[in-house]
Amino acid sequence: MSAGYSGEGVRLGQFFQKFAAKMMPAAARPPLLAVNAFGKHPGWDDHMDDVGHQFPEMLAFKHLFYVRGIGGNIDSGAWAHLPESQRLNEFNHLLIYSAEDYYILAAVSASRDGKGRGLYPLVTAVQARRYSLSDLVESVGPVILKLRDAVRAATAVAAVRSAVQAAQLKLDQLTGTLPLADGKPDQFLTGSKMIRALAADNPSTDGAGRIIYSLQKAVENCGRQGAAVRTETLRLPMDGVAPWDCARIWIACLRSVLGANCPLMAIEYRPPTGPLLADLIIGPAGPGHLFCLRAGSERIPLATEIPYELDGAFQQRVSDYIAKCRSVADASAPPLPI
């Protein structure tokens, strides 16, 4: 990384994130939709200047995800040492990060700087507060994707700044029209969506049981309704659902069990061809947890492919849950049995 990214900066970002959350109760903090773009772009010879709003939470996310996570794996050679058969081709991800009283939605795309170096990606992101995940995915998600495409198409710094300004203008308009969530239940998580997320529509596999067992183990290791005791990761299959749809399902499920104080990250890998993947990071993310960004399923297996020994009682509990999800169909899904 360049000299401008220091350990001191990481600590400061974390400090300001915690300070902001403690100084003002969640319900008292104003609604927020704020865009930021950072990473690599041909308009800059090295890491681009942050373009857009730089609130403490976004700065902390950048240090966690980009500086320490991606930078740590690049500097250590962790991805470079992967055999080609075990490496994902390039950055092509969507993610949701949940912490305290806010979410960050981001698109992570392969890119290069003005000198042609392409190890680091371009990140276009929006920090949101006091809005539901449903409204964010459905209304803010398209703004992020449009911004990602505009920034990737731009060749000059001025064009990048103009695209970010246009995205923020659209977000400002949404701020006045989107309803505030403020603790109201989000109704998007239906029985049918849970069936798809659990790979339970394929009767030839025990995918649902293995996913639920993996989630149960992760939750037990992290601790319920509080800060994570230790960070857990797992990889799940994903079908061709809409952008961020898989990520919001797992963030919503885990947040309902672990509470808002436990940091969560759900990452969708969406290559132009080939299987889609979803990685969950439950707890504070470090470089080792973000290794998943470039590691293929030959290196990190899907939870559905791990041959857990599931006893009869557990399998019955899973079968009962799947039956309940099928019975409610497009109504709200029952809580996960974890």
Give a nutshell description of this structure.
With 338 residues, the chain is an alpha+beta fold. It folds into 2 domains: 169 residues, Beta-Lactamase, CATH 3.30.450; 138 residues, no CATH class. The protein is built from 8 helices and 8 strands; from the N terminus they run αββαβββααααβαββα.
What labels describe this entry?
single chain; 338 residues; alpha+beta; Beta-Lactamase; 2 domains; eight-stranded antiparallel sheet; 8 helices; 17% strand; disordered N terminus
Helix/strand order, N-terminal first: HEEHEEEHHHHEHEEH
Write out the strand line-up for the largest beta sheet, numbering strands in chain order.
2-1-5-4-3-7-8-6
**Number of β-strand runs:** 8
Look at the structure and give the CATH class of the largest domain.
Alpha Beta
**N- and C-termini, Cα separation:** 40 Å
Give the oligomeric state.
single chain
Look at the helices and sheets and give the structural class.
Answer: alpha+beta
Mean pLDDT: 88
Helix fraction by DSSP (H/I, runs of at least 4): 25-40%
What overall form do the CA principal axes indicate? globular
Provide the CATH topology of the largest domain: Beta-Lactamase
- How many helices? The count is 8
Approximately what portion of the residues adopt beta-strand conformation? 15-25%
Q: List segments where confidence is low: pLDDT < 50 over at least 5 consecutive residues.
A: 1-14
CA radius of gyration: 20 Å
Largest sheet: 8 strands, antiparallel
CATH architecture of the largest domain: 2-Layer Sandwich
